[in-house]
Amino acid sequence: MKSKFLYILPIFILCIFIFILGNIHAEESQSKYNIKEIRVIADEDFPPYIFRDEKGNLKGILVDQWGLWSRKTGIEVKIHAMNWKRAQRLMREGQYDVIDTIFKNEERKKIYYFSNPYADIEVSIFFNKNISGITDIKSLKGLKIGIKKADSNISLLEEEGITEYVEFDTYESIIKAAKNNEINAFIMGKPAGMYYMYKYNMQRDFRYTHPQHIGNFHRAVKKEDIHILNAINEGFSQINKLEYEQIYNKWFGFEYRSPELVLYIKLFISGVLIIGFVLIIWSITLKKAVEEKTLELTNTVDKLQRSENRINAIFKALPDLFFILNRKGIFIDYQVNDPKKLEYGPEKFLGKSVSQVFHKDLAQKLMVPIKESIRSGNTQMVEYTLGQGEDIQYFEARIIKYDRDEALAIIRDITERKLSDMKIYNMSIRDAMTGLYNRNYFEREMEIRNGQNNLNQSVIICDLDGLKFINDTLGHATGDEYLRIATDIIKFCFEKKNTVIARIGGDEFGILMKDISEEDVLKTKYKLKELLEDINRNKVIPISISFGYSISQGNKRDLKEMFKEADTFMYKEKLHHKQSSKSDLVNVLMKMLETRDFITEGHCDRLQILSAKLAKAVGMTDSKIQDILLFSKFHDIGKIGVSDRVLFKPGKLTEEEFEEMKRHTEIGYRIAQSCPDIAHLADWILKHHEWWNGEGYPFCLKRDKIPIECRILSIVDAYDAMTSDRPYRKALSKEKAIDELKRCSRVQFDPYLVEKFLNIL
């Protein structure tokens, strides 16, 4: 019993000694600074340093550190955390003694005294994985950037001229906005960023840059409270490295356990029991030395592990393939985050040279930069392709020196970028409608050929005649069809090696040829005419192409002058076509009317007879009556531009269909203007559906504002329509038709002309 008492007594005395010493020190801290309580304000949104759990309680490294500080000093600490912008404002207003989680900058140094930095915070740019080329602040221009209100990083953006960004109250709200694609990049401390990305399972959707800068967390007090800062610094200096490390390991996910520490504790206890209280001080010193060394080793291992984890994370995040090759081009090792990206399995390339894996030309192309990178140490770039046709893939290889006789090849699939570049380039030189080259390419090609010493060059100009008339009569869809037909014919006749065919205007085509004689040009022209004749057998409006050319004939000539000569030649032929076609337009229009089945059952004949009688009854001249006759025939010519679905619908038209039908007056107006023989009828064709009371279309004209010719035709046309059979009804009797005309007099029809018309029936 006595021996057990002697065994326990030294330990009991030591504990009492440490307790008394701690109380004395706490009382000294309180009395020295005359501080009983400290109010601390901090950001509530910087995990794992400080944040709120699901119940709203404050958690994190700083909560634990301040708790330990309070126990060391005996001073009560009240920690408050809130929105960072508000926290800074309340601190400036003097409502708190200390502000934590603050970065030091020039503006803040004017207000506060700062503690030594206690944490290094890497600040990175986080961005959506689908965005490439983000390396620094400058590369963020044009993106939707998120940043926390009152964050010191705002000044970094503004220094680079970036003033358009979205401010958020918390880091968590930034992450939520990024998840919902409201922003595509944001700047924040890496610990908070990684914490929230893992919390919301976004780590695969976002990447981050190397640190843009490393900020330091400080604690700060207003300049008049320097005594508080001294108390803070002294209190935190009492916390040893092991205690700090245990807090950090708790929140960063590492648990500190050391068999060596347990051994030293056992040795320490044994030593105390053996040598007594006299050696306690020496044992404590030894223990502290061992703890520091163990902590140093632990930190070293920790850093190595973190470094390895970062490298692995980078490899997994990058879409690239990594290969290590020696000076002879033999594959030694590889790294890839998705084995499906490999063109060949590892068994087909590891231990083999590039000449054994790839075809000869590609192997030679790759060996040059491999050797050069190992020799010079400079990064080499090379692009290459695999596959053919639609299966072709484009790759970019960055080759850098890896070791004394080894190189690291970083391979990236750039197929999408290449195809996009080619598509954009083709759009810049091709005409979307015909697929031919456009005018810009044509003119550039003329410049190039002007600089060549080819003495036998030709310029040919083709023009699709009457495209405007086709568009006005048959619609732009038909006009586009005529353009494509003309394109196919021209390509069939002229497409050959060293020939450039381009659409250089709305209806104009340019052709550049080499080594062709005038005889060959004329043969091709006749071939083109024969093809047009075959096609025109089935066309209501025939396709006509005017043709002009200029040939250098062994002389050095400026292609621009030759272009003007060919253009002049073409316009002369076009003028000839125009003159010869004028007389055919009326026949073409009649053919179009017949094709659309408008001239049926003597309708036009009856209209002409009745219109002429009514015109004569009101005293119109013979020349006017002749115009009335022509007007009666062509007043509905615009209906050739109305779809068959609407034109031949047996039932009542819908509102939308009626709007389409109403367009026939405007279409007819444009057609008439294009035809010299009926151009003087254009205004009547446009207005022949106006009503006496102003409720007609297209202008809602009233009474005498409506041309008399239109008023005459509207009465005659209505009467003939009512007394003729239609697909959806039988004809009315003459008496009922007359009653209807009387009913609509002063509404739809001129009452004077109705009276005259009834007199001649």
Automatic annotation (TrEMBL):
Pfam families: GGDEF (PF00990), HD_5 (PF13487), PAS_4 (PF08448), SBP_bac_3 (PF00497). Residues 307-377 form the PAS domain. It comes from Anaeromicrobium sediminis. Keywords: Membrane, Transmembrane, Transmembrane helix. PANTHER family: CYCLIC DI-GMP PHOSPHODIESTERASE PA4108, CYCLIC DI-GMP PHOSPHODIESTERASE PA4108-RELATED. SUPFAM superfamilies: HD-domain/PDEase-like, Nucleotide cyclase, Periplasmic binding protein-like II, PYP-like sensor domain (PAS domain). The lineage of its organism: Bacteria, Bacillati, Bacillota, Clostridia, Peptostreptococcales. NCBIfam families: GGDEF, sensory_box. Residues 455-588 form the GGDEF domain. The chain crosses the membrane at residues 6-26, 261-284. It comes from the Bacteria. This is Histidine kinase. Residues 578-761 form the HD-GYP domain.
